């Protein structure tokens, strides 16, 4: 496999690649780009973890457990438990008994947790605008739509993988 580097618009810098190889290389670069995206746009690592937990809980409010948070974050349960405990101590989350099974504790956002999610979303919006300031407005909007679509499709794909419906 040949290494390729790309410009922002996908033009291949290494002309020795065939069009199919260039497309494959570009798609390989997507994973690298996504892994760096959040790391480069948050002010502190703790903000990234906290925001991730709050978003996971918000998406599955009333159904998510610490184990579920761990699975979605791709970390061990003790790691997730420590992070969730910090959010609870800061008043961002609360544990409640599941309505379906009183033995299970589920996580819910508090009003403060929802406010923290909103604060972080506004901060990220401002960072997005700064990063894309040189883009045309239609490019910025199209990218935002595709990124949101990708995220929604990734969630569906992940749920299908977990349920064994992998297609």
TrEMBL record:
Pfam families (UniProt xref): MarR_2 (PF12802)
InterPro entries (alphabetical): HTH_MarR-typ, MarR/SlyA-like, WH-like_DNA-bd_sf, WH_DNA-bd_sf
SMART domains: HTH_MARR (SM00347)
Residues covered by the HTH marR-type domain: 41-140
Highest taxon of source: Bacteria
Protein name as it appears in the record: MarR family winged helix-turn-helix transcriptional regulator
Species this protein is from: Nocardioides dubius
């Amino acid at each position: 496999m040949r290494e390729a580097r790309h410009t922002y618009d996908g033009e291949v810098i290494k002309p020795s690649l065939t069009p199919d190889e260039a497309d494959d290389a570009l798609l390989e670069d997507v994973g690298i780009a996504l892994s760096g995206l959040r790391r480069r746009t948050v002010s502190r690592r703790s903000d990234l973890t906290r925001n991730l937990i709050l978003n996971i809980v918000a998406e599955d409010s009333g159904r998510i457990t610490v184990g579920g948070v761990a699975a979605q974050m791709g970390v061990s349960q003790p790691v997730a438990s420590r992070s969730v405990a910090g959010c609870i101590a800061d008043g961002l989350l609360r544990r409640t008994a599941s309505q379906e099974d009183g033995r299970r504790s589920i996580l819910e956002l508090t009003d403060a947790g929802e406010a923290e999610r909103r604060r972080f979303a506004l901060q990220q919006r401002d960072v997005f605008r700064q990063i894309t300031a040189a883009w045309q407005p239609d490019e910025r909007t199209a990218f935002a739509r595709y990124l949101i679509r990708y995220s929604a499709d990734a969630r569906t794909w992940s749920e299908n993988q977990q349920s064994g419906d992998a297609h």
